Amino acid sequence: MPINVTVMQYQPPPTTTPHSDVVPAVVSVLVIVVLGLLIGLVIYKRRRFLQAKEHSDVGVKEQETCIHLEKKVSAEVSEQPEEYSNDHINVKAVDHSCDGTSEKQPKPSPKPRQEASSPQATPSPEEPKPFTPVPSVRIEDLADYIDMKKLAGENGFKADYKTLPNLQLNPWTVASKPENKQKNRYLNIFAYDHSRIVLQPLEDDPHSDYINACYIDGFQEENKYIACQGPNKASLRDIWRMVWQLDVDKIIMLTNPVENGKTKCMQYWDDTGPVTYADMIVTTVKEEVFLDYTLRDFYIHQIGSEDHSRLVRQYHYTTWPDMKPPEYPTPLLNFMRVVNAEQTPGRTVIHCSAGVGRTGTYIALDAMLEQMAHEGQVDVLGFIYQMRQKRIKMVQTSEQYKFIFDALLASFLTGDTVYNADVFRQKLSALKKSEGGAKETGMARQFEILGKLSVSPSVDSRKPKAAITPENLDKNRFQDLVPTDRARPFLRLKMHGDDNDYINANFLPGYRKANVYIGTQMPMLNTVADFWRLVYDHKATTIVMLNTLDPNDKTMSCYWPQEGRIEYGPLVIELNETTKYKSITKRSFTLYNKTSNLEFEDSWVVTQFQYHDWPSDKAIPSSFDGMLTLLELSTQPCERTNAPVIVHCIDGYGATSVYCALMALLDQFKFEKAVNVFQAAHRLRMVSINMMYSEHHFAMCYDVLQDYLDCLASTYENCIW
C-alpha cells in the first residue's frame, strides 16, 4: 500500500522557551520511524515478488510440455525427444528381448516449491469452437465440387479444413502421467481417456495399461479402427500386447521405420526369427515385396502357449511421404483393395508415425469409400470432425484433406479395373462396345480417364531440365518426348572430354519393384556411344529392341557388331552368337572395358532380343504371336539379375511402354490370377505423361493378355506357355 509523505517547508525556530530543546528531538525520532517503515515495506514487497516469480517459473516450465500451449493451429507435429538414444537399433540387437533392465530411466520432473500450489498436470481441454458442417457431396457432382474448391484458392479446401478443431478436446489424464510420458512419441499427440485402448496391466506394473492408441468409428461401425502411433522403444512390447488382447489380425503400417534420416517408427518385428516382447513371442514367417507395399505374415503366441498361436498379417505401404499426401491416389487405392480383399474376423490396427496424419487420411478415405458405395454421397469434413472427437489432429494437413477428395474421384471414375482370368474375355468384350448408346467405347473411356488421372499436382517435378539444355537438344530424337530429371538414368563413364551425364531414357517400374526397366529411344548416330555407356554404367545384361531397322532412315544406326567386334572409346562389344526364332533374333555379346584393371568385374555377357514384327511407322505389330514369344524369351534373363533391362523402340515411349506394361501384368497374373491393365498403364504414366500415349497401345495390352490366356487354356503342344 503506498505511503504518502508530506515534506513541510522549513520554518525558523520561535523564541526559545523552557521546552524548546525537546521539539527537535521529537521531530528527529518521527523522521527515523517513518524512514524505517518505508524501508521495511520495500523489502517485504521485494521478497514477495521474488517468491511469486520463482513459483511462476516452475509452473511455466511444467506447462511448456503441455499440448495446450500450441500456438499455430495448423502447425506440424513437433517431435518429442526420445527417452532412449538407441531408438533406431533393430530389436534383434537387444538379445531378442525388449524387457532388459539396462534401459535408461526417465529423469524426474522438477517439483514446485512446497508453499506454492501445484499447477494442473493435464491442461484444460480446448473450448470447442462452433463447427459448421458442410452439405454432403453427391458422387456425380464430385468433379465439379473439387474444381470449384480449387478455383476458390484459400477460400476453398483450406478454409473448410480450418473450421475443424485442432487442439485438445477431451481429457488425457492417463497419457499425461509421468510414468507414461516416454510412451508418447510426440509432445502434442496423446490418447484421450475416453477413447484410448486400455491394456491389461502386467504384474508388478500398474501403469502398463497405457498405449498411445484410440478407437475410431467407421462409417457405420462403432470402434471399427484402432489408430495408433508408431511404436518407440518404450512401447515396443505394448503394440503386440494390444494385438493379442484385442484379437487383431491386420496391421496397416503407413510409414517407413526411417524417413529422411529420422526415426519414425521402431521396427517391431524381426526379419529372420522369433523375438520376445513382454510375454509375447512374434515370428516372421513370410514376406512379399511389391512396388508400393510389402506383405508380412507373423505367428504370435504367449510364452508357454505355443499351441495357441495366431496369424497376423501386416500390410506395409512404403511410398507415402510424411506430412504430405501421395502424389497420385491410384496406388493407394490399389493397396486398399488388397487390404479389403481379405475379409477377416479380427480387428485392424492402423499406424504411421504419430498415428494422426497418414493414419487419419487412410481411415477417412476407407470410410468415405464405404459411404460412397452405400449412399452415393460423401461427407468428408463431417467424418474428420467425428474422428477428432476421439483422437487429436486426425488428417493433419489441408493437403491430406484435399487428397481424400481426389482419391474418391479417382475411385469413382475408374471403378473396378481388376479383372480375374475367368471373366477377362467378357470384360474385354464389354470394353470394346459403346456404353449406353454413347459414341465412345468403354476402352476409349478408360483411356480418357487414364489421361485425366495422370496429371501430376507436382508441376515442377514434371518439367524437363537437362533434356532441353543446348548441349543435349541434338540427343533427342523427338523434342516433345524427353525425360524429366527425377526419372532419367545418369551416365558416369566418360569417353571424351565433352561427355556429360545425359541420355534420353527413363527408369520404369515392374510389378514388384521400381526401376526394373530403362526405356530409351533407338540410338542415333551421335548417341550410339551413349547407349553403350548406359548399358555399361547400369550393368545391364538384357536389351529388348522393339523397332525394326529402316534402311531409309539415316538417323538409325546398327549399334551392335554383325560380326567380330566394335569399339566405342574404352568399351568393346564382341558378338558371340546369333539365334533365330519366329519374329525374334537373339544375339549374345561380351561387353568389357579395355582400360579397366578389374578384368572380371568389367566384363559380362549382354543378350539382345530383336523383335521384327513392329515397324516403326505402325501403331501395333502385324501379329501378336511374336510378342508372346518375346515376352517368354526375355522373362528368364530378367529374373536372373537385379540389373535393369534396357528396352527401346523408335521413341522410347510408345512400344516400350507396351512391353513394360505386359511384363508387369504377366507377373501380376502369376501372383493374383488377375490383371489390372489400367493400373499398369497408370504406373508408367506416373513416370512420364508421354508413356503409352496412344489408345492403340492401351488396347493392345488387353488383346495380348487375351491371347496369353487363350494359350494357357489351349491343349496345343506348340503353346510356349
UniProtKB/TrEMBL annotation:
Q: What is its EC number?
A: 3.1.3.48
Group of enzyme by EC: hydrolase
The catalytic activity, as recorded, is: O-phospho-L-tyrosyl-[protein] + H2O = L-tyrosyl-[protein] + phosphate
| Residue ranges, annotated region (Disordered) | 97-134
Q: Which residues cross the membrane?
A: 22-44
Pfam families per the UniProt record, alphabetical: Y_phosphatase (PF00102)
Looking at the record, the residues that make up the Tyrosine specific protein phosphatases domain are 333-402, 625-699
For this UniProt record, give its keywords in alphabetical order, as a comma-separated list.
Hydrolase, Membrane, Protein phosphatase, Transmembrane, Transmembrane helix
Q: Where is the composition biased (Basic and acidic residues)?
A: 97-106
Which residue numbers delimit the Tyrosine-protein phosphatase domain? 157-411, 443-708
- What is the designated name of this protein? protein-tyrosine-phosphatase
What organism is the protein native to? Acanthaster planci
Q: Which gene encodes it?
A: LOC110982840
